[in-house]
Amino acid sequence: MDNLPIRPRRNRTITVDFNSEQTYHQLCGDGPGFIDFVVAFILSLGLQLKHK
C-alpha cells in the first residue's frame, strides 16, 4: 500500500443561485437553513452531477 501513487487534489465548485442578495444574507444568519437550501438546490439539479 505504500507504493500507491499520490494523485493531486482537485477542487470542485458548485455555484448556488439564491435568486437575490437579500435571500443570501437571510440564510447566512441561519446555519441549518443555509445548509438545507444548498442541499435542496443540489437535489433540484436531479443529481445530474457525476464525478469523473
List keywords for this structure.
mainly alpha, 0% strand, 2 helices
Give a written overview of the molecule:
The mean pLDDT is 77. The chain has a domain at 22-46. The longest helix is centred in the C-terminal third of the chain and has 14 residues, at 31-44. The protein has 52 residues and is mostly helical. The chain is built from 2 helices and no strands. The chain has helices spanning 21-28, 31-44.
Distance between the first and last residues' Cα: 24 Å
Are there runs of 5+ residues with pLDDT below 50, and where? none
Order of helices and strands: HH
Specify the overall morphology: elongated
Please count the helical segments. 2
Task: State the share of residues found in helices, binned by percent.
Answer: 40-55%
Largest sheet data: none
Mean pLDDT across every amino acid position: 77
Helix-strand makeup class:
mainly alpha
Task: Give the percentage of residues in beta strands.
Answer: under 5%
Total number of beta strands: 0
* C-alpha-based Rg, rounded: 16 Å
Summarize the structure.
With 52 residues, the protein is mainly α. 42% of the residues lie in helices and 0% in strands. It is built from two helices and no strands.
What are the SSEs and their pairings?
Blueprint: H1 21-28, H2 31-44
